[in-house]
TrEMBL record:
<dbReference type="Pfam" id="PF01145">
    <property type="entry name" value="Band_7"/>
</dbReference>
<feature type="transmembrane region" description="Helical">
    <location>
        <begin position="32"/>
        <end position="57"/>
    </location>
</feature>
<dbReference type="InterPro" id="IPR001107">
    <property type="entry name" value="Band_7"/>
</dbReference>
<keyword id="KW-0472">Membrane</keyword>
<dbReference type="GO" id="GO:0005886">
    <property type="term" value="C:plasma membrane"/>
</dbReference>
<dbReference type="InterPro" id="IPR043202">
    <property type="entry name" value="Band-7_stomatin-like"/>
</dbReference>
<keyword id="KW-1133">Transmembrane helix</keyword>
<dbReference type="InterPro" id="IPR001972">
    <property type="entry name" value="Stomatin_HflK_fam"/>
</dbReference>
<protein>
    <submittedName>
        <fullName>Stomatin (EPB72)-like 3a</fullName>
    </submittedName>
</protein>
<dbReference type="InterPro" id="IPR018080">
    <property type="entry name" value="Band_7/stomatin-like_CS"/>
</dbReference>
<feature type="domain" description="Band 7">
    <location>
        <begin position="52"/>
        <end position="211"/>
    </location>
</feature>
<keyword id="KW-0812">Transmembrane</keyword>
<comment type="similarity">
    <text>Belongs to the band 7/mec-2 family.</text>
</comment>
<dbReference type="InterPro" id="IPR036013">
    <property type="entry name" value="Band_7/SPFH_dom_sf"/>
</dbReference>
Length: 282
């Protein structure tokens, strides 16, 4: 909010500096003489001259009037009807609507020495028609050039990870830089967006291999944790079974039931371990 107030103050100050001394009284005696002649011509050809004197600007337009090369008023005319004097007055129409344009893909070297191709889109509008006409030859074309330069300058200070993860912050940085650069031209940058970031093919393959290796390592860690938990569970189960020999026999019978349910042709009858141990002792 404070930045917007400062920008508006700078715009008003720049406009006042430009047109503060430009008033109808500064055209001189010769200028007034030409103005009087022009008025006499209008009166003499009134029915016809009205079509050349009355102009119309739309709701989204403003007209900056020059009289003998000087600004007529401190502010532009419009919207609606306004009058110009033939032979002495000229005017420029200024469109106040928001304009958007695409920033062509720019080859940019990031902070960590990676070459990427980045493009974007900029939305801006004319905030001060008088300043946009006087201070720059073509405000729209100049804004396009500054946007390309600003894109390279801002992204040149970021590494690849920041470029891929923090697009919103980069867009805000570009908007602030563009708004400050175009403020003397009466241009207000409303929004900047990063559209696409194209990486080299070799870098894409390397990043894909890195991501795959990361996923495989995570899978191995998860499998190892599962084996560890399973071994702990088996250890606890063995301790419970060791406390009750009858539980071991019930486990044998449960295993036989499971084998029989699977329709196997071979059935294995496990012998009790206690019986085998007596033969081993003998």
């Amino acid at each position: 909010m404070v930045n917007q107030v400062k920008i508006q103050n700078r715009q008003s100050e720049s406009s006042a500096d430009i047109v503060g001394h430009e008033n109808p009284g500064s055209i001189g005696r010769c200028g007034w003489f030409l103005v009087i002649i022009s008025m006499i011509f209008i009166i003499a050809t009134f029915p016809v001259a009205i079509f050349f004197c009355v102009k119309i600007v739309q709701e989204y337009e403003r007209a900056v009037i020059f009289r003998l090369g000087r600004i007529v008023d401190r502010k532009p005319k419009g919207p609606g009807l306004f009058v110009v004097l033939p032979c002495t007055d000229t005017f420029r129409r200024v469109d106040m609507r928001t304009v958007s344009f695409d920033i062509p893909p720019q080859e940019i070297l990031t902070k960590d020495s990676v070459t990427v191709s980045v493009d974007g889109v900029v939305y801006f509008r004319v905030s001060c028609p008088v300043t946009s006409v006087i201070n720059v030859t073509n405000a729209h074309f100049s804004t396009r050039l500054v946007a390309q330069t600003t894109l390279r300058n801002v992204l040149g200070t970021k590494n690849l990870a920041e470029l891929l993860a923090d697009r919103e912050g980069i867009s805000q940085s570009m908007q602030d830089a563009l708004d400050e650069a175009t403020d003397p031209w009466g241009i207000k940058v409303e929004r900047v967006e990063i559209k696409d970031v194209k990486l080299p093919q070799q870098l894409q393959r390397a990043m894909a291999a890195e991501a795959e290796a990361t996923r495989e390592s995570r899978a191995k860690v998860i499998a190892a944790e599962g084996e560890m938990n399973a071994s702990r569970a088996l250890k606890e189960a063995s301790l419970v079974i060791a406390e009750s020999p009858a539980a071991l026999q019930l486990r044998y019978l449960q295993t036989l039931n499971t084998i029989a349910a699977e329709k196997n042709s071979t059935i294995i009858f496990p012998l009790p371990i206690d019986l085998v141990q007596q033969f081993v002792r003998k």
